[in-house]
Amino acid sequence: MSDGRAEPRPESRPEPLREEPTAADSSWFQPRRAMPAQDVAAAPPVDPAQEGAPAEAPVAEPVRPAAGVPWGAPVDGSVRQPEPQPERIPEPERIPEPVPVPQWSEPLPPAPPAPPVHDVPTTQIRTVQPSIPPAPEVRAGAGAVREQAADRTMALRVGELRAAFAAKLLGPADYPAEDPAGESAESAAPVAGSRTAARRAARAAKQQRQLMASRIAGETFITFGALMLLFVAYQLWWTNVLADRNSGNQAKQLRKEWAAPEQDGPTADPKDAKPAERGAGSAKDRAAGGYDPGEGFAIVHIPKLGIDDPVAEGVDKVKVLDKGLIGHYNDGELKTAMPWDRTGNFAIAGHRNTHGEPFRYINTLVAGDQVIVETKHTYYVYKVTRQLPSTSPANTSVIEPVPVGSGFTKPGRYITLTTCTPEFTSKYRLIVWGVMVDELPRSAGVPDALAG
């Protein structure tokens, strides 16, 4: 109940404007932003006479601030405290779902079939309108068969490439490569009579000819190499075996013939014999006369080298030297003296390599080494004096009665050993000279150099 006094109407306060979302504010990743509240003018006071009448809705008129007052500030000049803003809570980031990665164990998706490529030797040029597609070409007869064979060959190649790529990527497969048609490459064969079949046949024939030629050449070289190895083995090893066997048999034969020498009296010590008696064996050797080419008549002993090889008449390579024998120069202008001659040069020759190689190491002989020549009745002892390392094969002066270059100046009883040099060649000759220092009958016993 009213007591007649006008009761003051409660002061109306302007309501803050509601938040108006914008396009950016409506986004899920942006927080909502509060709009600034604006004050409106207070409603005019209500007339008491019209208090009972229905109140009309006040019309809000925009209140414009005075000059210098910012828009939205209170009109009465009071300071409005800022309203507290809600705390911004960031929304969690959305993590994209992982994309499944295919494993190697899963089969690869099949590759799209390759477009057919026509392997045609000659292609005609056709004029095609850009807007009108060309009509399919109709083929018939042998040309169509060749085209199909070419297409099939290309498809096989594509299938082989795919299989090779898959084998490199996933490992070798236990199945043969297949073409797009599903047939294996091993069972595929070109159509008989096609150009592809003819090319394959020609290629196979050419490869066969090349294979045969290479086989023949290879077998020829292998055979030639084997023959060369056999020849080298024969020259360096087997000829020595044969020559040693032959020279050993010749030495045994000579000793068998000398087994019963003539005895002129009781055996005496050769050191106690007089010089005239010590050379008595030479007369018996001279009485024996000459010898035929290739016939053995003496044995050469070189104690330092361990040589005990027979000497045959002549220096023929096939009849004497290649049989492992030592040859005596006794042919034509190369005729030299015998050991039992009163003066002269007893010149002999022998192989240095192969065929027994009796003179291989005579280059190691030095002055004072002994060379003993044994005959049926006598031992002729020589002492080495000088060596000529190399000379021409045409230099025959080294076997003259007084050999040139030996240091001998007057006739005497000399010996000359000749052989080839360097080893395994016959370009030059190696010469060794010696002089006789003793002559002992075989009946007096073996010389001291051989007895030890």
Please describe what this structure looks like:
The protein has 452 residues and is α+β, with helices and mostly antiparallel strands. It has a domain at 168-452: Sortase, Chain: A (Beta Barrel), CATH 2.40.260.10. The protein contains 5 helices and 8 strands, in the order ααααββββββββα. It has helices spanning 142-170, 195-257, 275-278, 281-287, 448-451; strands spanning 296-302, 307-313, 326-328, 344-349, 370-374, 378-391, 413-421, 428-441. An 8-stranded mixed beta barrel has the order 1-2-3-4-7-8-6-5. β7 and β8 form a beta hairpin. The longest helix is centred in the middle third of the chain and has 63 residues, at 195-257. The chain is elongated, with a radius of gyration of 65 Å. It holds the Pfam family Sortase.
Instruction: Report helical residue fraction.
Output: 10-25%
User: Strand share of the residues?
Assistant: 5-15%
By secondary-structure content and strand pairing, the structural class works out as alpha+beta
Mean pLDDT: 75
What is the name of the CATH topology of the domain at 168-452? Answer: Sortase, Chain: A
Q: Characterize the quaternary organization of these chains.
A: single chain
Series of H and E elements? HHHHEEEEEEEEH
Radius of gyration: 65 Å
Q: Assign the CATH superfamily of the domain at 168-452.
A: Sortase
What's the helix and strand layout?
Blueprint (H helix, E strand, L loop, with lengths): L141 H29 L24 H63 L17 H4 L2 H7 L8 E7 L4 E7 L12 E3 L15 E6 L20 E5 L3 E14 L21 E9 L6 E14 L6 H4 L1
Parallel strand pairs: 2-3, 4-7
Antiparallel strand pairs: 1-2, 1-5, 3-4, 5-6, 6-8, 7-8
